[in-house]
UniProtKB/TrEMBL annotation:
Lineage: superkingdom: Eukaryota
Organism listed in the record: Zopfia rhizophila CBS 207.26
Protein known as: Uncharacterized protein
Amino acid sequence: MARKEGLTSSVIKNGWKAASLVPWNPSKGLESSQLKKTALDALSLFTTPTHEVHIIEAHTALRKAKSLTFETDIVLHKVGRSIGKLQASIAIKDAEIKGLKSRLEELQGQNKRRKIVADPNAMFCGINDIKQALEEQKAAEAARAEKKPEEEAKKAAALMEQAKIDDHVIVFQI
């Protein structure tokens, strides 16, 4: 009895209304957002790529949309490869700059003043300890003046400018 009452025309129509199939439209289910492929996001395609991965993502999105000609496909592939090479050269230059900065800091010295080491058995430092620390400081300044860190840094910078990029590029082959 309940089965017969459940299959009345009004119950079936109300079910169709709840599923938003009234008026009857067989293509409505096929036009669902779950079944449609998402359209290309125009904003994501026209942003400036900052890495090779972004070029590859845009390239695959355009390829899926089938809106690429053969020539455009090749150009995008080459652009992605050149961006990858430029990223590698930038990383190498950043490493060189970091190395030169650390070398410059090393040559300049960190602190001109020396801390006087106090004798733990004495309450205060003695005059002899202070004189010895001053002499050590003068000797260190004289040694630093002999090294001439400014000239060494200029020489290193000149050598880096004269060197070609190919001298610093590391090539990996698989």
